[in-house]
Amino acid sequence: MTMQARIENPAMLLPDTVQAINLLYKAAHSAGVPASTLELVHLRASQINGCSACVDSGARSARKSGETEERLFAVAAWRETPYFTDAERAALALAEATTRLADRSDPVPDEIWDEAARHFSEKELAALVVWLATTNFFNRINATTRQPAPQHWG
């Protein structure tokens, strides 16, 4: 079954949103968090939200940036693999908590925040939070409007 979009991508229908999205992207990517970490948390949040377009584009972008297939395949099971640094694990835990806000009474427990704060400066934490919010924004738009992942041949 091929998924059919309900409407054109809302960001294209409301062009002023593109500028805002670009500013959020720029801010999140200019605070010193390694690009690979931002790619991984984007991918993990998108997996959780079932956003096929973002999983596809996130994995492709990460691979173009030098991410290994081994690590990309393991993102969903990052806790059970040896492929991620302690800082990446802290960021992935923060990504999961930030994405699953309604799953617990304390959405982002102190132990998750404190572990992330051990590895990232305040500015970097701000960038992670903004990037995760932006990722979840994209995921919600794409899932709601059923934006499909593009078909790739070959």
From TrEMBL:
GO molecular function: peroxiredoxin activity
Domain Carboxymuconolactone decarboxylase-like: 15-97
Pfam families cross-referenced by the UniProt entry: CMD
Alphabetical keyword list: Oxidoreductase, Peroxidase
InterPro entries, per database record: AhpD-like (IPR029032), AhpD_core (IPR004675), CMD-like (IPR003779)
PANTHER family: 4-CARBOXYMUCONOLACTONE DECARBOXYLASE FAMILY PROTEIN (AFU_ORTHOLOGUE AFUA_6G11590), BLL7811 PROTEIN
Name of the protein: Alkylhydroperoxidase AhpD family core domain-containing protein
